[in-house]
């Protein structure tokens, strides 16, 4: 059984770092809106932008990941035509097959997340998609802002994708005014303690205990705690169950946090 705290009082925190999926935003939005959109529109994006410098860099990053996967025998990987191949359609076909397999496997890869962010940008800019953030998160962000407590996002999704989600919400407009910076897996994997050490160093507070990290993932919570951060686990509809005796305080709403 998970013990949910009715009210959590934290006195020394100067910064709050938040996960997105299952913490600030419903898992269903990611699984039912973002991922399907990227899966369905990756081909169109690659075809329309194939010769741009940005997409060439994205393709190079994907190629490196695909070659690594082939060397490691990852199931479902499709070899790409050589980088000097002249048949653009064949290259795109192979890229799309790999990207869709990565999405289906929910792999947390920088190459995939970067491309997804590009595709989602088209959806947000066209108005096809709007971000979804829990009401209690918006209220907490506003309250912390008035108190001078800085808020940050750390997600496996690219920084571009993070800014799109919070900059284009359906019910609350642009929430980026409350967010001081965005971190993605370029700082390190979310289940690695070193990543949270790097975030602490970047934020510049005297002690990692002055940072509150909010996540729904037990392994992330453990890594952050090992780095010295204060941690609360978010319990939201659809989130994965936690291990028994996980040892963390939990919340069902940001309204339960007092800083």
Automatic annotation (TrEMBL):
Q: Report any Pfam family annotated for this entry.
A: Hydrolase
Q: Which residues form the signal peptide?
A: 1-22
GO BP annotation list: L-methionine salvage from methylthioadenosine
Q: Which GO molecular function annotations are given, in alphabetical order?
A: acireductone synthase activity; magnesium ion binding
Fetch the SUPFAM superfamilies from UniProt. HAD-like
Q: Which residues form a coiled coil?
A: none
Give the keywords, sorted: Amino-acid biosynthesis, Hydrolase, Magnesium, Metal-binding, Methionine biosynthesis, Signal
- The lineage's top-level taxon is Eukaryota
Xref: NCBIfam families: enolase-ppase
* Descriptive protein name: Enolase-phosphatase E1
């Amino acid at each position: 059984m998970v013990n949910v705290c009715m009210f959590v009082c934290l006195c020394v925190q100067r910064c709050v770092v938040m996960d997105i999926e299952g913490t600030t935003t419903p898992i269903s939005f990611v699984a039912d809106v973002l991922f399907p959109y990227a899966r369905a529109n990756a081909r169109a994006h690659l075809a329309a932008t194939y010769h741009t410098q940005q997409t060439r860099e994205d393709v190079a990053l994907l190629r490196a990941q695909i070659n690594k996967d082939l060397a490691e025998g990852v199931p479902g990987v499709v070899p790409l035509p050589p980088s000097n191949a002249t048949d653009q359609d064949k290259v795109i076909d192979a890229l799309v097959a790999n990207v869709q397999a990565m999405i289906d496997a929910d792999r947390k890869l920088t190459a995939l997340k970067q491309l997804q962010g590009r595709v989602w940008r088209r959806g947000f800019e066209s108005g096809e998609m709007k971000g979804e953030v829990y009401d209690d998160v918006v209220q907490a962000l506003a309250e912390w802002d008035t108190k001078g407590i800085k808020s940050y996002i750390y997600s496996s999704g690219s920084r571009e994708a993070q800014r799109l989600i919070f900059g284009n919400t359906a019910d609350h407009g642009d929430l980026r005014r409350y967010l001081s910076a965005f971190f993605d897996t370029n700082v390190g994997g979310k289940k690695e303690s070193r990543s949270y050490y790097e975030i602490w160093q970047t934020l510049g507070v005297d002690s990692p205990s002055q940072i509150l990290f909010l996540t729904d993932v037990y392994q992330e919570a453990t890594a952050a705690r090992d780095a010295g951060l204060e941690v609360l686990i978010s319990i939201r509809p659809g989130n994965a169950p936690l291990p028994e005796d996980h040892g963390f305080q939990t919340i069902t709403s940001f309204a339960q946090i007092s800083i």
